[in-house]
Design goal:
Chain A is α/β, with parallel strands linked by helices. Helix content of chain A is 41%, strand content 16%. Chain B is an alpha+beta fold. Chain B is built from 2 helices and 2 strands; from the N terminus they run H-H-E-E. The longest helix of chain B has 19 residues. Chain B starts with 15 loop residues before the first helix and ends in a 10-residue tail after the last strand. Classes of the chains: A alpha/beta, B alpha+beta.
Chain lengths: 269, 89
């Protein structure tokens, strides 16, 4: 039986797809058979972030409509044998994701994989509710910024009421907070909500803090999940997140401003 | 961070604290509204209409509070009547 993880946020542009790619790659590299599914029907992007956009033949909606089987649609990652990508359809309507269809595909995947990572679209509409419906765990991606925090709180309300676990009175979805685009310097100056501020408002288990980093854009330019950029702070922070998800006790890094040398203090930079 | 920043040590209090305060209020409000049954506004309206048949009360005189506790739900109605009961029909 696979564990189903939804990466969600409500607000767009906070790093759901980046996080989905990083978590899936991280889990796969640690030897777990993992599949990552793009639920953003009509606006697929996960394939680009994973760098497999030219290998898409069939997609999630084809599988739901039984126009293709899973083996035809799944794309095996070239860097890691344990990782598969199920791309979204670029042309269909998001209503193409039916609850029965999604459930059937997840059940079939569940037999052959350890983890299923669901990359949710932004918003609280159909695609997003389908991505979270079957989830066992949820990572709520949040920027330290008012609209993102508020939307995350709304997602928590939906996770606790409109999911299979909620409807069947099973144990609730395990919810985790991932703070992204964190800028310790601005936090120190009092210009940005701190980790503690956001924690106090949302009261969730913190699974990671990803610092604002140029490497996220650089990695996406090249179609490389940023977790593979082991020299970058964002890559390391995502690596830590994966370890924490798997139950390891890893201290949080990159929460403080790095001490600068004398010259760079004088001349800026 | 340049040399000039050293002379600007008396910066105004950051905007993050404002953001935090606003969010705390907003989130508390959102959460309170979340579990409420959808009939509450209409219930409030109809109760108000009934009361206004007998007593001239303000439109804001009736407040309906809904709370969920572990084993039961509480629907609290608070009606503020005017000082003198001269509004009787």
């Amino acid at each position: 039986m696979a564990r189903i993880i939804v990466i969600t946020s409500g607000k767009g542009g906070v790093g759901k797809t980046t996080t989905s790619a990083a978590l899936a790659m991280g889990l796969a590299q640690r030897g777990h058979r993992t599949v990552v599914i793009d639920f953003d029907v009509g606006l697929r992007n996960l394939d680009l972030i994973m760098g497999c956009e030219r290998r898409v033949v069939y997609d999630f909606v084809n599988v739901i409509n039984q126009e293709a089987n899973l083996n035809q649609a799944l794309i095996r990652d070239k860097r890691c044998d344990n990782l598969y990508v199920l791309p979204a359809s670029q042309t269909r309507d998001k209503e193409a994701l039916t609850k029965e269809g999604v459930g059937r595909v997840l059940e079939e995947l569940s037999e052959g994989y350890d983890y299923i990572v669901c990359d949710s679209p932004a918003g609280i509409e159909h695609g997003a509710t389908m991505a979270m419906y079957y989830a066992d765990d949820a990572v709520v991606v949040t920027n330290p910024e008012v609209s993102s925090v508020r939307d995350s709180d709304r997602m928590l309300g939906i996770l606790s009421s409109k999911s299979r676990r909620a409807e069947s009175n099973a144990d609730p979805i395990r919810e985790f907070l991932l703070l992204t685009r964190y800028d310790p310097l601005r936090v120190e100056k009092g210009e940005m909500l701190s980790v503690d501020d956001v924690q106090e408002i949302l009261s969730l288990t913190l699974i990671g803090v990803i610092p604002e980093s140029k490497s996220v854009l650089t990695a996406s330019n090249a179609g490389v999940p940023v977790v593979l950029e082991r020299d970058s702070d964002a890559g390391k922070a995502y690596g830590d997140m994966v370890a924490r998800y798997l139950g390891e006790d890893v201290p949080h890094r990159f929460l403080q401003v790095e001490k600068k040398g004398f010259l760079s203090r004088i001349f800026g930079g | 961070m340049g040399l000039l920043d050293y002379f600007r040590s008396s910066r105004p209090k950051g905007s993050a604290s404002v953001a935090k305060e606003r969010l705390q209020i907003l989130v508390a409000h959102d959460r309170a509204a979340r579990g409420r049954p959808s009939y509450l506004p209409r219930l409030q309206q109809e109760i108000l209409e009934v009361i206004r048949k007998y007593v001239e009360v303000d439109m804001n005189a009736v407040s309906v509070k809904y709370e969920q506790e572990a084993s039961h739900e509480v629907l609290e109605l608070n009606i503020i009547l005017p000082d003198t009961a001269q509004g009787r029909a």
